[in-house]
Specification:
single chain; alpha/beta; Rossmann fold; Arc Repressor Mutant, subunit A; 6-stranded parallel beta sheet; phosphoprotein; Sig_transdc_resp-reg_C-effctor
Length: 201
């Protein structure tokens, strides 16, 4: 029996996923949540075989939760189920030790087969997305530029970002300017949009 944890913030979709998986005789849904902050504590308690996570969750996003699970509950493999089919998201997922990456418009059979494969230790990635990731160019921003841009995307001002990262305000502004230039963006807001659409944030 494959024991599955599901985290999806859209109530109707989450309930549909649970109902679909309950038809499978060898799959048991042991927990479901809408908030990413619940994933790690419940996974520690329940020790599921597979965690099926949305990327864009409130609280803790799915990719962060996947990285935390790989360290804290290593026997629990993770699979991202997302509508955000961007090459950058796939790269971030692989860096977070995710075992599966499927789009939400995949068929129910494909989902259940993928969960079984991931539970066996295999890696399952949507083939079209894998090809797109191979064709996509490298991400141009440095880790620090990305980090500063992530804080800016949350609405933080330069002074707040500087305090959190132990940098000067001028250095933070330089990182933001560099990110805007590298992404050929009009301004900081445009740079955040470009980075989000590419799946880098």
């Amino acid at each position: 029996m494959v024991r599955v944890l599901i985290a999806e913030d859209m109530h109707m979709l989450r309930k549909a996923l649970v109902a679909l998986l309950e038809f499978e005789p060898d799959i048991e849904v042991v927990a479901e949540f809408s908030n990413g902050a619940d994933i790690l504590p419940r996974a520690r308690e329940l020790r599921p075989d597979v965690a099926v996570l949305d990327i864009d969750l409130p609280g803790t996003d799915g990719l962060t939760a996947a990285a935390e699970l790989s360290t804290a509950v290593p026997e629990c493999r993770t699979m991202m189920l997302t509508s955000l089919g961007r090459p950058g998201n796939l790269r971030r997922a692989l860096a977070a030790h995710v075992s599966g990456f499927l789009l939400k418009d995949s068929s129910p059979d494909k989902l259940s087969d993928a969960i079984r494969a991931v539970a066996r230790g295999e890696r399952v990635i949507d083939p079209q997305l894998a090809l797109a990731a191979l064709d996509d160019g490298p991400q141009p921003l440095t880790p620090r530029e990305l980090e500063v841009l992530r804080f800016a995307a949350k609405g933080e001002e330069s002074a707040q970002i500087a305090a959190k990262l132990f940098l000067s305000v001028g250095t933070v502004r330089n990182y933001l300017t560099s990110a805007v230039t590298k992404l050929d963006a009009r301004n900081r807001v445009d740079a955040i949009r470009i980075a989000r659409e590419a799946g880098w944030l």
